[in-house]
Amino acid sequence: MPSFRLCLAILGTVLLFLLSACGTTKVQPGYYRVQSGDTLTQIARKQGASVSDLVRWNQLSNANAIEVGQVLRVDPPAGQARASAPSKAKSRSQASSKPAASSTARRRTAPPGAISLVWPAQGKVTRGYDGSGSNGIVISNASGTPVVAAAPGTVAYSGSGLRGYGHLVIVKHNASFLSIYAHNSKLLVKEGQRVSQGQKIAEMGNSDSKQVGLYFELRYDGQAVDPAGSLPPK
Q: What are the tens digits of pLDDT across the range 105-131?
């Protein structure tokens, strides 16, 4: 029989595929999905890493043998440091007189009026979306605070098999939009279940997180987008 660790690895791979199948070409923070025409050198340059970093972090036997759709780690694993970034990446960084501009350039928004959301939980927004280090927002409140579906849809995933997300719910709203609700203390819906906007789907918690809070992410055509433009003012 396969070992427990192997089973967990297989489960994690399946869940990553699920996120991809829900209309996304972008994987969880710290990873990158290989696109057509990519080379490891290009990916390293874009991510501010070195080719040797990517080879080491992904245990690649051949730097030239990457495949379209392959998911690569582009941030160092715990306990490992990032090697010196390529000189071209350094030059770009040094030449930029406004570091915030690159972060702003990565900020994505959904088309105006494409989807109308309600707040997925009551509380204080303690981390916002920036399109780089944070692809979603964190809403903080007491453990057990109701978490609701931000828009109507179908539950694509409900479980705790994806490391880093804790007890997680993914709701697919239509062909273009899905939303992610992570770190819950309790899940109240099942996969395939139809949910209405504002319906309670979970309770806030700190599963796989150091602090109590809901991590909420909105994705449009496979890309994490700033939900602020689709949420009502607080």
A: 467 888 888 999 999 999 999 999 987
Please say whether the beta carbons of 7 and 161 come within 8 A. Answer: no
What does pTM read for this prediction? 0.60
Q: How many domains does the chain have?
A: 2
Report CA Rg, the chain.
Answer: 19
User: Alpha-carbon distance 120 to 133, whole Å?
Assistant: 21
Is the CB of residue 156 less than 8 Å from the CB of residue 141?
no
Euclidean distance between CA atoms 40 and 53, whole angstroms = 10
CB 94 within 8 A of CB 202: no
Q: What does the block give as tokens for 6?
A: 């192997």
100 and 128 inside one domain: no
User: Domain range for residue 176?
Assistant: 124-230
Residues 64 and 143 in one domain: no
